[in-house]
Amino acid sequence: xxSSSAAPKGPTPADALRRNRILSSKLYFDVPGSKAPxxxxxxxxxxxxxxxxxxxxxxxxWGRICKFLTTEGHLEKNRVIEPLEASKEDLLVVHxxxxxxxxxxxxxxxxxxxxxxxxxxxxxxVQQKLLYPxxxxxxxxxxxxxxxxxxxxxxxxxxxxxxxxxxxxxGFCAYADITLCIQFAFVRLNISRVMIIxxxxxxxxxxxxxxxxxxFHLQEGYTFWTCTMLEFIPLTAYGVEDHxxxxxxxxxxxxxxxxxxxxxxxxxxxALKVAKSRFQPQLIVYNAGTDILDGDPLGNLNISPEGVLxxxxxxxxxxKDQNIPLLMLTSGEPLPLQFAFLLLSCIFASIxx
Length: 353
Hints:
Mean pLDDT: 81
Low-confidence stretches: 1-7, 215-224
Structural class: alpha/beta
Strand order of the largest sheet: 1-2-7-6-3-4-5
Distance between the termini: 33 Å
Largest sheet: 7 strands, parallel
Strand content: 5-15%
Helix content: 25-40%
Number of helices: 12
Shape: globular
Order of helices and strands: HEHHHHHEHEHEHEHEHEH
């Protein structure tokens, strides 16, 4: 969306510093063709003396998905790509110094991940056991955007921290990986138009805030970098609705509590048809939350596991039919495992037919 009312005056020293940080980052690296465009690290999973179980988000889902895919022969383990951890310099591309410093307080981190006992844990432990896995997933999201442009598609089996913005975390999201991977793509991949399709059951208020004014400067002169957003938002999902951030969504579909599979998929078909006529992105970042499932305690929707599979295939097909590279992030609560595994297997098959 282009929400600026006046043309920018040119790059500032802060813009130049951001660009230099992106260009000097080590998060982009060459990946052999023998590797699959699937990014994962065992460090993604959060094991925190059992305290992680106090939040309804399943913080070990990523490992179980990859373990099944590899042990069942759907994906060879040596074909999975291990990302690097996002460094402080990488995070400063988007985040403020004051926000990163706030994460040195266990009290602040406890509020972000919504697990009060974290307040009582020494921060060095919090950094190692909780924030380090998040930083690895950020590295995975950033690298996956590069892979998507190179291969046509990529999956980061993690990431999708859509509640975190440059200056504020929340909702179990400590770092703004969606904003970061897009900013890196703008500078390093020579693209200027990105579309976020966010189908998690909750509002992506983090990236909404970050791209509220989506004019970003290059070091020489300036360019308009646009990030458009298609979001489905249940009106009664758990969590505080961010009305100010919601104004920045380009195409918004608000769902009634209890929306069922057929209605959901029908609305998705209509939304994708409109999006196809309105937007011409060079990359799609797909936040594929599965907390839309029937029975999820936070989503308040009644979508069947089969419906989630169909949803994801529709989004992949939407991208493939237009030859648009797609990056998938696995935000939100997991599917029942057997369907999560089928999901990835179906997607791998669909893009090769």
